[in-house]
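User: My instructor asked us to take a sequence, write out its structure as tokens, and then describe one feature of it. I'm not sure where to start. Here is the sequence I was given:
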Amino acid sequence: MYVAVKGGERAIENAHTWLAEERRGDPTVADLSIAQIREQLSLGVNRVMAEGSLYDPDLAALAIKQARGDMIEAIFLIRAYRTTLPRIGHAEPVDTGAMACDRRISATFKDVPGGQVLGPTFDYTHRLLDFALAAEGLPAEAEGAQPVEPEMPRVTDFLNRDGLIQTEAPGDETPPDMTRAPMEYPAGRPLRLQALTRGDEGFVLSMAYSTQRGYAKNHPFVGELRVGTVPVEMEIPELGFSVEIGEVTLTECETVNQFSGSKTEPAQFTRGYGLVFGHSERKAISMALVDRALRWEELGEDDVGAPAQDEEFVLSHADNIQATGFLEHIKLPHYVDFQSELELVRKIRAAAQETELKAAAE
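Assistant: Let's start with the prediction itself. The structure tokens for your sequence are:
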């Protein structure tokens, strides 16, 4: 029988107090500041900004601290805060071609105008624990650093000149905003890209990995990966022109994919695209691979039934906040639901036993 639970508020208050104590940890250890998180855990901050759809390193660092390092909880906090902010206008589309790059590499051409810029990367580290970091010493400074070329044209432009890669025509209509309208299927590519850039990094990575293992007709090359800052401009109606209001750090990836042609398209290379807040290479590359897999229909390819080609499957399950909410709600009280299920099982068992007794009697 269901009995109403009393005294819940006191238990919840005590749980909050205990949570605050656990968050602080040993009081003899120095408290972790927002600035330390922002500057020294920047990749985690970047992920929270990207999947939280809000570019603010300080708020993302605060969310990480409040969530005790639980990234999905921090993303939840940022999204919840984002809903309280008024929208005063729309920024102009950013020009990533004019990005001030800290890192720019291409896996398709060795010599490209502007050069290969390795930048800050784990790619060439040995993946061994560096116990020197435990000594809290100052990092070594780079030697002989050369200035980065001011102009870095897109690698895919070289293929586009010869008609070897699919031309991307700019859309005429304003893309829908998935933060203000529910997802609808079939979703256009702009809406898919929004969902992927907000999607859980681990899930998008898994979908991208599946395409590389053969679960989609997708053999990619990283045409270009660039990380850097771009200015953000906004048109001021009173002035009649756009002004720069700040800058953001972005990671952009364009993949070059094999394509043997179809009934509607000639043989050529095709593109996958990823764009993410902050320095987030794994997410941008994964996004580009999944983007290309989801384009099978518009390219006239045959559907091989791969999970990464199923638009509704990918987009419905990419959002870690929706997934977390649905998953974690089952740990909340479900006493009435369970009692009804329990009663149903008892009735089924009783009916089965009665049938067995009748059969034995006969």
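For the description part of your assignment, you could build on this observation: Residues 8-82 form one domain. Try explaining in your own words what that tells you about the chain.
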